From TrEMBL:
Localization annotation: Cell inner membrane; Cell membrane
TM region positions: 12-37, 49-70, 82-101, 183-201
Ranges where the ABC transmembrane type-1 domain occurs: 13-201
Membrane topology: Multi-pass membrane protein
GO biological process terms on file: amino acid transport
Source organism superkingdom: Bacteria
GO MF terms, alphabetically ordered: transmembrane transporter activity
Keywords: Amino-acid transport, Cell membrane, Membrane, Transmembrane, Transmembrane helix, Transport
Free-text function comment from the UniProt entry: Part of the binding-protein-dependent transport system for glutamine; probably responsible for the translocation of the substrate across the membrane.
Protein name: Amino acid ABC transporter permease
Organism name: Ancylobacter defluvii
GO CC term (a single one): ATP-binding cassette (ABC) transporter complex
Length: 211
């Protein structure tokens, strides 16, 4: 029973990891776009990006997931649950990632821009070669925290009928009547996932110090 339960939880953990990677990927791309609009975009677009961040950070993710999943079919958008979770979760955490990226880009000294222009670099070339690598180093530690929160928030998927690690643990607890051991096992799986991400992030951070 212990072996079969562990395998079942491992399957749920794989689903959780897949959802987390999708959410983090969407949050990274959308967050960078929002940060660029805030810093360098046309002012009305920058204001819209700022307003989006305020609204997204002010509404619980669970409310957005429930509202989106059960409302989209009425709008003619019949998407699978996992896609709704990845898109809504990614756009939600993009608001947090945008603040991380914006702060990192703004923290790069203005003299770096002046030095690049003095060397004859164009704006795009200067940004990609000089500014972005420095901002990437600065943004990694806080973005890692955003990623860890995103992983743990995949547990909300079970609230809208999805199946992942928490749902697997609940099923095992109800089947075996061992609620506490089941959820302790779920917590252990989450710890392993988050600890692994933290270690990978620290390794990448150390590598980037010497680049």
């Amino acid at each position: 029973m212990l072996t079969s339960s562990a395998l079942y939880l491992a399957q749920g953990a794989l689903v959780t990891i897949g959802l987390s990677l999708g959410i983090i990927a969407v949050a990274t791309v959308a967050g960078m776009l929002l940060a660029l609009l805030r810093l360098y975009g046309w002012r009305p677009l920058g204001l819209l990006a700022a307003a989006y961040g305020l609204v997204a950070r002010g509404v619980p993710l669970l409310v957005l997931l429930i509202g989106s999943y059960f409302s989209l079919p009425y709008l003619g958008l019949d998407m699978p649950l996992w896609l709704v979770v990845v898109l809504i979760g990614g756009l939600y955490f993009a608001a947090y990632a945008a603040e991380v990226f914006r702060a990192a880009l703004a923290a790069v000294p203005r003299t770096q821009w002046d030095a690049g222009r003095a060397l004859g670099m164009r704006r795009f070339q200067l940004f990609t070669i000089v500014i972005l690598p420095q901002a990437r180093r600065l943004s990694l530690p806080p973005f890692l925290n955003v990623a860890l929160v995103a992983v743990k928030n995949t547990s909300l998927v079970s609230a809208i009928g999805g199946w992942e690690l928490v749902a697997a643990g609940r099923e095992i607890g109800e089947r075996t009547m061992e609620i506490l051991p089941a959820y302790l096992a779920v917590a252990a799986f989450y710890f392993v996932i988050c600890f692994s991400i933290s270690q990978i992030g620290r390794h990448v951070e150390k590598k980037m110090r010497y680049v």
